[in-house]
Design a protein that fits this description.
Strand order of the largest sheet: 4-12-11-6-9-8
CATH topology of the largest domain: Immunoglobulin-like
Helix content: under 10%
Largest sheet: 6 strands, mixed
Distance between the termini: 183 Å
Shape: rod-shaped
Radius of gyration: 62 Å
Keywords: Membrane, Transmembrane, Transmembrane helix
InterPro entries: Chlamydia_OmcB (IPR051172), DUF11_rpt (IPR047589), Ig-like_fold (IPR013783), OmcB-like_DUF11 (IPR001434)
Pfam families: DUF11
Oligomer: single chain
């Protein structure tokens, strides 16, 4: 090669060429990670292990291979394509050359060791046929944190009532809620509830309850499985003993899981309280069970009941008899468990269960003069208010009528006028009102002619004597003249009737007999006829006597 310098001189040079071979180089690197990088061991947690190979150049990498020794205890669920397991090591081939700036990713899905805890460490490496000038980034390590399962079993208990106070004998309900706040499913969750004295539970029903056992002073309930975050609720109804003494009853419950047995329990006990009082509602009634009559015993009935819900304690019934009865008249028939003192009958009942009424019947004689009698009764118990009842009985003094009737003369002939004397008197202790005397003379061969009715009036057409009112001990008499219309034995009856203040109708009747003969027979003086007439009188007298005897027996039976 010839060159000319600045001075015009030329120089000639000669050169030699040398070739140096340069090898391809690819700086490969690998990264490794777990997502998530923290899981629980029981139940096993799932994680994804990601391996990423990259080529920083300057040359393309050929036959890239990624290897990973799978962690002990980590169970593979899914391996990516192109990976082969041999002796616990996965070998993964990148399916094509890895260009400069290009990466390739392998994802492994696995689950954590069952029941284990700690950190699982795992390393992976990348290589290729291409020279790698930097081996320091060809290996990567990542750790998976395996945590012990956290189980949180929570129970709550509430009183399902608008009031925190109930009466003994009432029912009450408690609500329960059991929640799994942990990270794994709980099996065989058992709730045990202690039952206070005097309470009787009933097993709850529903889909959440698997079984229920009541024994002694507790109730044991097995629930369905509880998944993480799941809760189960149910209600236990409990009845109470009506005879409970007042108290504050505290009901405690606890919950456990039988599987798994290593449950970490938080707030697994709960309590609820209810105040129990004993306040029965009492009812007392009093009635007269017989028709009261002056001078006769009256029957009283007392019924005492605890309407509940609680049992009444130390029950006493006191019946106060009317003060207008004398002491001797109080000695009536009273129950054997009652005692009489003055005007009071006291009955000791003791304990009275709800809806178990007790009945007392007793008898008290009423005075013959009648009157108004107020009978009061009260019932009391140590744990309730006193209740009262009364009955008022009004009994009027009763009248008693007596009547009389006679005829003069007792023997007459047809056409004669005879005189009947009628009398009525009140021998009772009460006034007789609306007294009426009926005479049946019209239908017995007589014609009524006149009367001397004082007081009252006498109706000659009907034979009715309207007397009016007869005071106790009063009497009235009238005379009635009648004409004999037929011959024979004329039986003539008079009946007295009155209506008294209490609605009964005391009445009495009496019969007068008149012997009547035809006028012609009375004028005949023959011996044989006279004998026959005498015999007739004797026989008639016997008939009259028999009639009067029978009539008096009937009156005596009234």
């Amino acid at each position: 090669m010839t060159e000319t310098d600045g001075y015009g001189e030329s120089s000639t040079f000669s050169t030699n060429t040398t070739s140096t071979p340069v090898n391809a180089a690819a700086d490969l690197s690998i990264t490794k990670s777990f997502s998530p990088d923290s899981v629980i061991g029981a139940p096993p947690g799932t994680t994804t292990m990601t391996l990423t190979a990259e080529n920083a150049g300057p040359s393309e990498a050929t036959n890239v291979v990624v290897t990973d020794t799978f962690p002990i205890g980590l169970t593979l669920i899914a391996a990516p394509a192109g990976c082969v397991l041999s002796n616990g090591t996965y070998t993964c081939l990148v399916p094509e050359n890895l260009g400069v700036g290009v990466g390739w990713q392998f994802d492994f899905v696995g689950v954590s060791p069952t029941g284990g805890s700690g950190v699982v460490t795992n390393s992976a490496s990348v290589n290729s046929d291409t020279f790698d000038p930097n081996f320091g980034n060809n290996t990567a390590t990542a750790g998976l944190t395996v945590n012990a399962a956290v189980n949180n079993l929570t129970i709550s208990k509430t009183l399902n009532s608008q009031s925190s106070t109930i009466s003994a004998g009432e029912a009450v309900a408690f609500g329960f809620t059991v929640v799994n706040g942990g990270q794994q499913t709980l099996h065989n969750v058992v709730l045990t509830d202690s039952i206070p004295t005097g309470f009787t539970p009933t097993c709850p029903v529903g889909a959440v309850v698997v079984s229920c056992v009541i024994g002694g002073s507790s109730i044991t309930i097995t629930l369905q499985n509880l998944d993480p975050g799941d809760g189960k609720g149910f209600v236990v109804a409990e009845s109470t003993d009506p005879s409970m003494t007042p108290t504050t009853a505290t009901d405690s419950a606890s919950a456990t899981s039988l599987s798994p047995t290593d449950v970490v329990v938080n707030s697994n006990t709960a309590t609820a309280s209810v105040d129990v009082i004993n306040d029965p509602e009492l009812l007392i009634t009093k009635s007269v069970t017989s028709t009261p009559s002056a001078g006769q015993p009256v029957n009283y009935q007392v019924v005492f009941t605890s309407l509940g819900p609680s049992t009444a304690n130390n029950v006493v019934v006191v019946d106060t008899l009317p003060s207008n009865l004398t002491a001797t008249e109080l000695a009536g028939v009273i129950p054997s468990d009652c005692s009489l003192s003055g005007y009071e009958i006291t009955c000791i009942i003791g304990t009275l269960a709800p809806d178990s009424p007790v009945t007392f019947n007793f008898q008290v004689p009423l005075p013959p003069g009648g009157g108004t009698f107020v009978n009061s009764v009260s019932g009391s118990a140590d744990n309730s208010q006193t209740v009262d009842a009364s009955t008022t009985t009004t009994v009027a003094a009763e009248p008693f009528l007596a009547v009389s009737k006679s005829v003069s003369p007792t023997t007459a002939k047809v056409g004669d006028v005879v005189t009947y004397t009628l009398g009525v008197s009140n021998t009772g202790i009460g006034a007789a009102h609306s007294v009426v005397v009926d005479d049946n003379a019209i239908s017995n061969g007589l014609q009524l002619l006149s009367s001397t009715a004082e007081p009252g009036t006498f109706d000659l057409t009907t034979g009715t004597w309207t007397v009016g009112t007869l005071a106790p001990g009063a009497s009235s008499t009238i005379s009635v003249k009648a004409k004999v219309l037929q011959a024979g034995l004329l039986s003539n009856t008079v009946l007295a009737v009155a209506s008294d203040p209490v609605g009964t109708a005391p009445s009495k009747s009496v019969t007068a007999v008149l012997v009547s003969t035809p006028a012609t027979q009375l004028a005949y003086t023959g011996g044989s006829l006279q004998l026959m007439w005498s015999a007739g009188l004797v026989l008639g007298g016997l008939g009259i006597g028999l009639f009067l005897f029978t009539r008096m027996r009937r009156l005596a039976k009234r």
